[in-house]
Amino acid sequence: MNKKFLIGLISVTLSLGAIGCSGNKEKVREQREAYAASLTDSISAVQEEIEECNTRIDELRDAVNGWLHDFTTVTNPREAGSYIILTSQRNAYPLKGTGITARINDNCQFELIAALSGKPFSQIKVNAPEQSATSERVPNDQALNYRTPALTTVMFSGEAADSIGKLIADNELNPLSVTYIERGGVGNYKIPAAEAKMISYTYLLYSNQRELNRLERRVPMLHEKLKLLRAHRDNSSEKSGQEASGTAD
Asked: DSSP per residue over 4-44, as a string?
């Protein structure tokens, strides 16, 4: 092979290699800059969410503190723990006849209590004009489902009870009724305005407090996420600066 041609071929190959390396470095740098820009956008989004959460927390605290003025804390030695109940309905609980009411226990859980004279039941369905909600079945155990010859009283809690509370809160001014169930319907009851208001107020206090607790837990998590994003962005920017400096050298 011609020596001159060989030297030329080597020179071209080295030049192409240098161009390729330079192109790869440039591509990596562009990708890193794009990543840093996306991190900046993510940081802005998290900061905005933190501000929104803090604003909502202030609103919910005001709402919860306002609701609490209308409630009374009750401690009964015969029961496992204390609970809060709407003050205006304090004397109407425990139920002495057919009816429905609500309270919030000391674990901040919404509890719905229904009673029916004369017949046993283990489940309820609350009916509004355009929708209904059904509780879980609570078997007779003389604790959550307490029966005497004259009256059955059942306490409901959990997601299904929350759904009933929301239904009543959303339809407080509409006609509402309860169907008592034990292998089929065993009784019906039109919820009076005072009971609907009591359950509605109790559910609203409960739901506001629950959302307040959720947001108060979320804000510290968002701050940790913000610190992590900033660390990644700063690290990426530092590497981009080092690569740019190296290219210039």
From this structure: HHHHHHHHHHHHHHHHHHHHHHHHHHHHHHHHHHHHHHHHH
